[in-house]
Amino acid sequence: MSTSSGTPESWISSFCSLLGHEYFAEVSEEFIEDDFNLTGLQNQVAMYKEALEMILDVEPEEDDDDDEEEEEDEEDISGDVRDGPGGRERRHHSRVASDLSVIESSAEMLYGLIHQRFICSRAGIQQMSEKYDLGHFGVCPRTNCNQTRTLPVGLSDIPGEDTVKLFCPSCLDVYVPPNSRFQTVDGAFFGRTFGALFLLTFPEYDLSRSGAETASTLGRSADELTMVNGMYARNIAPGLGRGKIYEPKIYGFRVSELARSGPRMRWLRDKPDDVTVLDEARRFAEEHGAESDDDDESMVNNNNRPVASARRRRPAGNPTLRQRQGLNGSPMNVDANGAESEL
Amino acid sequence: MDDYGTESDSDYTSYWRDWFISSRGNEYFCEIDEEYLTDRFNLTGLNTEVQYYQYALDLVTDVFDLDCDDEMRETIEKSARHLYGLVHARYIVTTRGLAKMLEKYKKADFGKCPRVMCNSHPLLPMGLSDIPNLKPVKLYCARCEDIYNPKSSRHASIDGAYFGTSFHNILFQVYPALIPAKSAERYVPRVYGFKVHAAAALVRWQNGVRDDMRRRLRKMEVESGFKDGEDDLDDDEEEDDPEEDEEQLALVRRDPALGAGPSGAYGGDAQMGSVA
């Protein structure tokens, strides 16, 4: 039903190429046309139907007859659309300029909200990973993060609350984008989930690489693939910990913690030297003997160190393979290279 | 001393220092007092550091009157900027220098902290080394006590030694009232409202480190500077209010595939692998 073939550029791609919209992925039409993906949005967006038509480049019909016909077509895909605010009556007015600008802003809002959902879907997160590879989202401003690539995130899922922020996987902190043009982009269009979900979906990105270098995956050595808490140990906040914390000095002497102006925020950039102490489940199991159940054991055994309580040792073999199998149990798991994208 | 301002013919001003600090990219510098510049004691050792030291100094103090070709003038100009920077590093830790930099700090002339939780706290320029030509200037946020790269490449190419490693720390020693309140507020990565296990475990560990520090300080009767009182030390470890939990539940209902659920003893962290 798309009529975009006649136009040189779809609304979606022209929206994404606007200045300040560099972070947006192009939501596929199939995703928007699937009614399930739009559940609940008609209550959040004024002139929902018109906005949706604009996004999908469906030509607004001036003629009433055509209008009806088209509306019937659309009923299949967008069910209870007509309950939406500003619904039916409006459609029978011929569109005036002010109307159009309202629809335009509604369309942007709707697109943003769909985008929030899309980038958490397989196809969407894959597209975002391509943008991440190309460094579209900028790098962390923190000196000790050494130009780690960042991810766009929102601090709220509700539109109108805050602008888009950048999440740095290296220091697990959020930053204001350097360019002021992003200060008009709503954070809800990216949502709170995307940043963390991205790291879980693509655990094999080598986060210690700087944005200037080509993005790559972790090496294959067993040491690099040690798992802690469901993530590769190397990828747990690589920008934090000893040597990555700023130490205030005056004429070469460190400022004491006991000074009024002494360091108070080191904890924020700290990390245990040995990240395996963060594996609370394993430590609990060690302290409390063999009480851990089987579920826990899969986690416990992901460390290549002896576990006091482990009843059976993992058979010798390729640890990588076993971990990969473990990960495949997750509904959101996508192969790091997207080879098995199913959408 | 007529047309020394060859670099910016239109921007001709009567003093070299005026021209220097008002030219683009030099916003971080403050103006060094003439008396400070003319006191030889303050320049001790710089003659070995700066090429054409005497000419450069003449240029900076507006008594330059050498007749030379453009190439030579360019070299001297460069030396003058280097000299100014090195004197600047010494000047800004003096009483007058600190006061001038403080004014600029209050106006946020050095930019604002990019960290969201710092709420645009003003930054201070600093160097990672006192030796010139090693590290470019960085920006220090007194609120999160971390250092950041300047946004613009114009500033990123300024030598850090022109500000030095001590200035920003001395500023807060001299003006302790200006030390901003510290905050334990931080970003916690979440997936559909659930904390991510790996990150949440690190946050718990970091909170432990922070609480240890606060206990240490309390024992020594030193003010910790955190804005939330000392007393709630033990309460702030897990701030999971019921409202938040409800919100999480509501969000999970939207995507049942991810509602793998909180895993008992270790707090409701969404975790990869636990489903397997």
TrEMBL record, chain A:
Gene3D superfamilies: 2.20.25.20, protein kinase ck2 holoenzyme, chain C, domain 1. Belongs to the casein kinase 2 subunit beta family. Residues 79-88 have a biased composition (Basic and acidic residues). Regulatory subunit of casein kinase II/CK2. As part of the kinase complex regulates the basal catalytic activity of the alpha subunit a constitutively active serine/threonine-protein kinase that phosphorylates a large number of substrates containing acidic residues C-terminal to the phosphorylated serine or threonine. One of its GO terms (cellular component) is UTP-C complex. Residues 300-309 have a biased composition (Low complexity). It comes from the Eukaryota. GO terms for molecular function: protein kinase regulator activity. Keywords: Phosphoprotein. Residues 60-93, 285-343 are annotated as: Disordered. This is Casein kinase II subunit beta. The lineage of its organism: Eukaryota, Fungi, Dikarya, Ascomycota, Pezizomycotina. Residues 320-331 have a biased composition (Polar residues). Residues 60-78 have a biased composition (Acidic residues). InterPro entries: Casein_kin_II_reg-sub_N, Casein_kinase_II_beta-like, Casein_kinase_II_reg-sub. The keyword Phosphoprotein applies. Tetramer of two alpha and two beta subunits. Tetramer composed of two alpha chains, one beta chain and one beta' chain. GO terms for biological process: regulation of transcription by RNA polymerase III.
Automatic annotation (TrEMBL), chain B:
PROSITE patterns: CK2_BETA (PS01101). SUPFAM superfamilies: Casein kinase II beta subunit. Belongs to the casein kinase 2 subunit beta family. Pfam families: CK_II_beta. GO terms for molecular function: kinase activity; protein kinase regulator activity. Tetramer composed of two alpha chains, one beta chain and one beta' chain. InterPro entries: Casein_kin_II_reg-sub_N, Casein_kinase_II_beta-like, Casein_kinase_II_reg-sub. This is Casein kinase II subunit beta. SMART domains: CK_II_beta. The keyword Nucleus does not apply. Keywords: Kinase, Phosphoprotein, Transferase. One of its GO terms (biological process) is regulation of transcription by RNA polymerase III. PANTHER family: CASEIN KINASE II SUBUNIT BETA. It comes from Corynascus novoguineensis. Regulatory subunit of casein kinase II/CK2. As part of the kinase complex regulates the basal catalytic activity of the alpha subunit a constitutively active serine/threonine-protein kinase that phosphorylates a large number of substrates containing acidic residues C-terminal to the phosphorylated serine or threonine. GO terms for cellular component: cytoplasm; protein kinase CK2 complex; UTP-C complex. It comes from the Eukaryota. Coiled coil: none annotated. Residues 229-248 have a biased composition (Acidic residues). Residues 225-276 are annotated as: Disordered.
